[in-house]
């Protein structure tokens, strides 16, 4: 019964040889497919799963060496064992067969017992290789699932910690989620590598962690801040960078840069360091526009939430307080080209 699901393709231009192979192998429970030439064999293998190929060497048209070479050069089929059945007894022909990738050689006229033993052995090897391949796929999927679970738990913890740091309202968690999605989208649009895009997604929610060091009288004030209060508020960048410094992971290193630089501006008018243009790390250049967009869309004690249309106009054209020159031109262009995606992210993660 163990052979019922094993399919063997027999290839020979001699119908009598095919009948003999079929008669021997069917008695052992194998499923037999037959081809009377190399081209027909390759055509069968494009749509039919095969576990083993018994391949005659001397055939008109495409000979056995060539067929074996095609099979072994094809990444979809090269795991299928090939036994070359040949009447050529010279060493050079055998070496040529092995050079073409044959797994074994069988001389004509073949012995029934030898045929069955070699067939059974090669099928067992293939079965074991298939098991390892499937097992590795399962392990890879399980590792990926576990990794994603750990990442999800990590970012949930970040949301909770940052929300606790801001201690503002129910929109804080939504703000954190929105900004992480904006950041990932922009990073991908400006050509960041996939690994960096993921890092930005997981690191950016920590941009405001430094607000844990800002006094409640300033952090929770329901009115515009005075200059002195705003100077204190600005220190959340340095506080956050200090909290996040010293980490060994790429995510924590990026989080430190997000915290320190997310209020820097392309024209040098930002804080805390007043950096300009490419002096500002990419994290700061990307998040600057992200933070401004979400702040304009959100309700604040001193302003109502703005529509996407008005927010787009302010960022792209300026309103006196916010100017296009504040933003990295490359990032600004990516935002303008894809502004509808920002609106969709905002709506998807708006406070319920």
Question: What would you say this structure looks like, in words?
Answer:
The mean pLDDT is 86. The chain has 15 helices and five strands. Helices cover 58% and strands 7% of the residues. The protein has helices at 15-26, 38-47, 64-73, 91-99, 112-166, 171-189, 194-203, 216-219, 227-234, 236-244, 250-261, 282-297, 308-317, 329-337, 339-348, and strands at 7-11, 31-35, 52-56, 82-86, 104-107. Helix 3 links the parallel strand 3 (52-56) and strand 4 (82-86). The two termini are 60 Å apart. It folds into two domains: 7-137, Response regulator (Rossmann fold); 167-348, Hypothetical protein af1432 (Orthogonal Bundle). The chain is of the alpha/beta class and 352 residues long. The protein has a five-stranded parallel beta sheet, sandwiched between helices.
